[in-house]
């Protein structure tokens, strides 16, 4: 024979299988399918080729003995010298050497060797005498138990705890374990190595090691990853022209140095206005740490279609009218208003234009100095930050056809409530009579009642306090409130003919910070302006025409419209 092909012995049981050729051509599949209990007998020169596809019992036809390893540990080994019944040589055993040293068996024929190195190959030389009186020897190689080292890890944002495991048995255990990380060696304490001052969300590599006396076993490329701050964006109040976005991250042991939205000032809350309806936008939030991480997350959103329907105006005098429109634009939008012109004005004549405010899905404004002898057209509009106009339909009205109208008053829910203060927001639109005074009334409720009590109640009337404010959309801070107390608040407008109130809304202040009682403190100085920003986030020292984002030294921000 010169060669044996693939699967030649598939599904065979052969006891033994003699392969008597030399320098045979064998492939990796020659012995595939041969029953694993079979024994192959061949010349030693063919062992390498046979082992490509056979991992089971293999005997040397020229060797009268073979090594039967009884037990191979890390640092010791026991074996027997067994007669090879398949060999053609008859022999008598003379001596056995292990690693160059002659050894003898015990009464049961078991050879035992101790003090070995783990994961190390040793030669066993068996010397025998043939039937013809010739002394010969055969050599076989054995190996102590393989060393295996590994680690498990648990991480935080800035630390990693590595628990290292390494091979050990009754014969041997490691004298030292640890890792090599960033050019430094860290030895285990209680089988663990703790690394600190790491960067969040970063993958690291280390080399594991274990020493067994003078022998060191290593494992390169062991990796672990610190926990991320997992930045994310929460979308709120998406409208056709605006959106409120809040950035968030997972709190841990990392020290956050900065967080916000790329390209914008203002921290983790981003209010975008002046957007185009039915348009796709992408924003990115980030969080940076003192440890050196810089993580980010992006979100894409599409603004919905714009709804803008001009309503029939309400004439409050022969020269003034309240104009209105229904819309799905959010209340934070300021680039909304009305255009008007005389009914018979030429098309080339630019209409008058003024901005207005939105409350509860309705845009309302006030037009003065109309001529009672003319009809007028009016339409609502929205102007994007890029200067694109969107319009409602034209509506015609007669300013001379007027009726008496009371002021329009609305109260918004309280915001930025602390243990001693709250910010209120109200909406005011004048009626027929001129406004003399406007602002908010507020009072504490008895027994923390959940339902607002009328201010006319005798128990309440004496506790009513007033804070004045200005503007169609007015804001005011209620100060010196009692902690853990429910208050009722409402916007109001006073004219010559009486007072008109908005909705009565309740809020509850927080508990006192100390948990003991109210501490009298001096009123802090009013915050100062630190900058004016346009809707693209560009800063200026003075206000500019249009919408300004005004930021103050106490971290708050306000919108201001400069006409």
Question: Concise description?
Answer:
With 563 residues, the chain is mainly β.
Structure description:
The chain is mainly β and 563 residues long. It folds into six domains: 79 residues, Immunoglobulin-like, CATH 2.60.40.10; 77 residues, Immunoglobulins (Immunoglobulin-like, Sandwich), CATH 2.60.40.10; 71 residues, Immunoglobulins (Immunoglobulin-like, Sandwich); 90 residues, Immunoglobulin-like (Sandwich); 101 residues, Immunoglobulins (Immunoglobulin-like), CATH 2.60.40; 34 residues, no CATH class. It contains two helices and 47 strands. A hairpin with a 5-residue loop joins β27 and β28. It is elongated and about 145 Å long. The protein starts with a strand and ends with a strand. 27% of the residues are buried.
Structurally, how many domains make up the residues? 6
Mean pLDDT: 88
CATH fold-type name of the largest domain:
Immunoglobulin-like
Largest sheet: 5 strands, antiparallel
As a percent range, the share of helical residues equals: under 10%
Low-confidence stretches: 447-452, 515-524
Number of strands: 47
Shape verdict: elongated
How large is the share of residues in beta strands? over 45%
Tell me the CATH superfamily of the largest domain.
Immunoglobulins
């Amino acid at each position: 024979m010169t060669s044996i092909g693939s699967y030649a012995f598939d599904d065979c049981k052969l006891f033994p299988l003699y392969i008597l050729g030399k320098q045979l051509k064998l492939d990796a599949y020659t012995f595939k399918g041969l029953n694993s209990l079979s024994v192959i007998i061949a010349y030693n020169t063919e062992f390498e080729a046979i082992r490509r596809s056979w991992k089971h019992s293999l005997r040397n036809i020229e060797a009268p003995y073979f090594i039967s390893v009884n037990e191979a540990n890390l640092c010791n080994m026991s074996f027997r010298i067994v007669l090879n019944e398949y060999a053609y040589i008859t022999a008598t055993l003379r001596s056995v050497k292990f690693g160059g040293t002659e050894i003898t068996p015990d009464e049961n024929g078991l050879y035992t060797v101790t003090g070995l190195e783990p994961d190390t190959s040793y030669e066993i030389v068996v010397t025998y005498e043939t039937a013809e009186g010739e002394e010969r020897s055969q050599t076989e190689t054995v190996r102590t138990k393989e060393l295996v080292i590994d680690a498990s890890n648990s991480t935080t944002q800035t630390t990693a705890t590595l628990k290292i495991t390494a091979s050990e048995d009754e014969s041997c255990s490691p004298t030292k374990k640890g890792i090599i990380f960033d050019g430094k060696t860290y030895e285990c304490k209680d089988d663990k190595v703790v690394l600190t001052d790491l960067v969040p969300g970063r993958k690291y590599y280390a080399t594991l090691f274990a020493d067994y006396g003078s022998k060191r076993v290593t494992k390169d490329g062991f990796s672990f990853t610190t926990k991320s701050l997992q930045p994310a964006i929460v979308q709120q109040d998406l409208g056709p022209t605006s959106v409120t976005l809040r950035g968030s991250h997972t709190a841990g042991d990392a020290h956050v140095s900065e967080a916000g939205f790329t390209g914008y000032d203002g921290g983790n809350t981003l209010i975008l206005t002046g957007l185009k309806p039915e348009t796709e936008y992408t924003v990115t939030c980030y969080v940076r740490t003192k440890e050196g991480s810089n993580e980010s997350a992006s979100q894409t959103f599409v603004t919905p279609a714009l709804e803008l329907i001009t309503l029939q105006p309400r004439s409050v005098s022969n020269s003034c009218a309240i104009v209105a429109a229904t819309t799905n634009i959010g209340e934070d939008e300021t680039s909304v208003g009305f255009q008007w012109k005389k009914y018979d004005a030429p098309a080339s004549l630019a209409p008058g234009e003024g901005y207005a405010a939105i409350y509860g899905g309705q845009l309302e404004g006030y037009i003065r100095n109309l001529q009672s002898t003319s009809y007028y057209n009016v339409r609502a509009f929205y102007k994007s930050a890029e200067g694109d106009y969107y319009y409602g339909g034209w509506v015609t009205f007669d300013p001379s056809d007027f009726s008496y109208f009371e002021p329009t008053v609305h109260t918004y829910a309280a915001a930025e409530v602390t243990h001693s203060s709250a910010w209120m927001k109200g909406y005011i639109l004048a009626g027929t009579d001129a406004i003399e005074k406007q602002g908010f009334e507020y009072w504490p409720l008895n027994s923390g009642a959940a339902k607002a009590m009328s201010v006319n109640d005798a128990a309440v009337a004496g506790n009513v306090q007033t804070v004045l404010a200005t503007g169609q959309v007015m804001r005011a801070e209620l100060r010196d409130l009692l902690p853990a107390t429910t208050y009722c608040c409402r916007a109001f407008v006073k004219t010559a003919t009486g007072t008109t109130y908005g909705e009565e809304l309740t809020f509850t202040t927080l508990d006192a910070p100390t948990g003991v009682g109210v501490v009298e403190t001096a009123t802090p100085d009013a915050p100062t302006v630190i900058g004016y920003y346009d809707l693209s986030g560009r800063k200026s020292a003075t206000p500019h025409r249009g919408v300004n984002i005004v930021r103050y030294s106490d971290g708050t921000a306000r919108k201001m419209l400069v006409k």
